[in-house]
Amino acid sequence: MESVDFRSGSLDATEAFLSSAYTPMRIGGSVSDAQVRVTRRAAGPLSVDRLAVNFDMGYDAGSLGRICLVSMHAGTLVDRTDGRETVYGPGETFLLAQPDLPYQGEVRSARYTIAMFDPALLDRMAAAGGAAGPGPVRLTGSRAVTEAGNKRLGAAIAYVRDAVLNDAASFPGALAVSTAAQHLAAVVLASLPHTVRTAPARVDTRDADSGTLRRAVSFIEDNAHRDIALADIATAVRVTPRALQYAFRRHAGTTPLGFLRRVRLERAHADLAAADPHAGVTVTQIAAHWGFAHPGRFAALYRSVYGRAPSLALKGVGAERR
Asked: Residue 293 and residue 289: Cα distance in Å, rounded?
């Protein structure tokens, strides 16, 4: 995991750092004590930055090439891209700029979090949901459609920041990071306006047979340790995502991703049973290895399936092994 901690009172040094960390830009400010702090945690497809700017800092920046979400905690951010002026304040989470376009504005004595990921992840998640559109997914607005969507988006960024990319010592592993990135992209699609439309609900039931289920189950079991999504499973067994979902609902009473989560939980259970806690192995490490970044949620899921806390399985308490 990449960890960066930048702190400076120099506009020149801050401009150089921001240009390196984000995109080439020019900044400006009129105070003598221009303090800026940026802490970055990044891994795989995700980066999360915490920023504190104690003065009014203007910026004129090039395109980012990434989806860039901002969650405001204090102060304000004024977007002046294309001559318009939009003001964002505490409690708001929004898209800073289109990934392929320059942007301008001003940060006014603010504290905020920035989360960024590759735009291609939106395409992947849209395809996983069986959605369609005229080409790559494009976000068409900066604010969430509803207040509930705004809160959901802010919570998703906070989860990635605090539970997944908090610090190097608690880094959960690549699979947990990729799972969190998929979750964040899915929340973006559920919260912000975009060009995706829902595809017709027709399903080719000829593809949704028990053979499709068997091939999908085999693929999932062989690849549960990898970063795979619904679209990857469907491609591997040569059916549409909708046909795949129908096959699982009809023949297994679950969803493809629900089955993937079950397989990963079983692998985590086996690792817990085989691990030696005296060697320093922890429940959190094993859970994260199988894509479960949040220890509390993993413990609740584990308990609902195996009837006891995962810490007891790690310690070898009880003779039964389910």
From this structure: 8
Cα angle: 2, vertex 159, 307; to 5 degrees: 115
Instruction: Report the C-alpha gap between 166 and 278 in whole angstroms.
Output: 26
Whether residue 310 is predicted with pLDDT greater than 80 in this model: the reply is yes
What gap in Å lies between CA 114 and CA 112, rounded to an integer?
7
pTM: 0.82
Q: Which pair of tokens denotes residue 124?
A: 């992947």
Question: Rounded to whole angstroms, how far apart are CA atoms 103 and 17?
Answer: 17
The rounded distance, in Å, linking the Cα atoms of 69 and 51 is 13
Helix (H, G, I), strand (E, B) or coil at 61: strand
State pLDDT tens for residues 233-273: 999 999 888 889 899 999 999 999 999 999 999 999 999 99
133 and 189 Cβ atoms separated by less than 8 Å: no
User: What single-letter DSSP state applies at residue 83?
Assistant: G
